[in-house]
Amino acid sequence: NSHRPQVQFVTQPNIHVYNESTKLMIEKHNNALLFNRRRSKSALPVLPSKQSSLSSSSSSSP
After folding, report:
1. Distance (Å, rounded) from C-alpha 17 to C-alpha 14?
2. pLDDT 10s digits, 20-59
3. What is the distance between the alpha carbons of residues 32 and 21, in angstroms, rounded to a whole number?
4. Could you give the CA distance from residue 24 to residue 30 in angstroms, rounded to a whole number?
C-alpha cells in the first residue's frame, strides 16, 4: 500500500520523459521486429521453396 503511491508519484513527473523514451524504444522495437520478420520470412520460404523445387524436379524426373 505504501509502495503504490510512491510508484505513482515517481511515474507522474517522469511521464513526459518516459513517453518520449517509450516512443523511441517502441520505434526501435518495431523496426527490429520488422527487420526480424522480414529476415525470417526471407529465410523461411527459401527452404520450403527449394525443397518444393527439388521435390518437383525429382517427381518430374521419374
Report:
1. 5
2. 777 888 888 888 888 777 666 655 555 555 555 555 554 5
3. 16
4. 10
From residue 3, how far is each of 13, 31, 58, 60 by CA, in Å?
16, 35, 68, 71
Length of the chain: 62
Q: Amino acid identity, residue 27? A: E
Contacts of residue 61, defined as CB under 8 A and 6 or more positions apart, other chains included, come to: none
CB 11 within 8 A of CB 18: yes
Q: Show the DSSP H helices in 1-62 as ranges.
A: 3-60
Triad 41, 46, 53: Cα angle to 5°: 145
The predicted model scores a pTM of 0.32
Q: Would you state the pLDDT for residue 18?
A: 61
